[in-house]
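Look over this entry.
=====
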Amino acid sequence: MKKDIAIKKIAPRTIVAFYEDYFELNAGSIILDNFILVIDTLLYPSQTREFRAYLDQNYKQPIKYLLLTHFHGDHLLGMGEFKSNDIEVLGTEQLVDNMKNRLENNWSQESIAKWKEEEPDNTEDFDAIDLFLPHRTFEKSHVIEDGSLRVEFYHSGGHSGCSAWVYFAEDKVIFTGDELASYNWPFISEPSGNPDTWIQAFEHMLSLDVENVVPGHGKIVNKKHLQEHLEYLKTLRSIVLKGIEDCIKVEELVVPEFYKPAEDWQIPKALEHLYNFYSKR
């Protein structure tokens, strides 16, 4: 798998780093007057190192914050590149709980050793993984200010229970994390995800003054694309609720066509999650 990334300035203060070969993965950065904040990392530490070098070389401000939108590895495995007493890592309270679990299991030294066996070409990157818990957490929202500039961080809990997203009004930009995977079937699979708060998050995003929407995966889009995904999530909810009411088995549910799933298992697993979620209500 190639590791080449593309770094692009999409607004006066907003930078996006894009890794096409892993489901079109995005990370980003916002350049404030006195400091820089980074939103998520890329999949490999070497890619994150390259992104940080770009910021260091092109901007005079120090990096002060790393915001993690959720606990999935493709969004934080490079966080060790920002390990410093001068950089504060932020995420939701539930992110910490999820990371603790993964540090004991999926991200244990034994697991990383197995990754190296399976992907020997990536040994240096696996050796560079340095994971640690955020320094600060929040429950519902958190604001970072620099003079008149304001970055808003919201806990939505849709794609995963710890999912969050970022709004920067100055550049009219949103970083959605995996609440949105543009031109993809929604990433509904995480057991802790909440489809109702996911819908609420999209409604909140659509109420804001936005020109660029940076998804966790996929190409940068606008509010029209957000609206399209919102309507589809509502449709899925209606189908599942009606199926439960009519005692239709989950495997017999039929959903309308949308964008192609990233993986073949995605639709049946999503419907199973939604069915279980609403059956408990």
In short: The chain has a mean pLDDT of 97. The chain has one domain: 6-221. Residues 141 and 154 are 4 Å apart (CA to CA). The chain is about 30% helix and 20% strand.
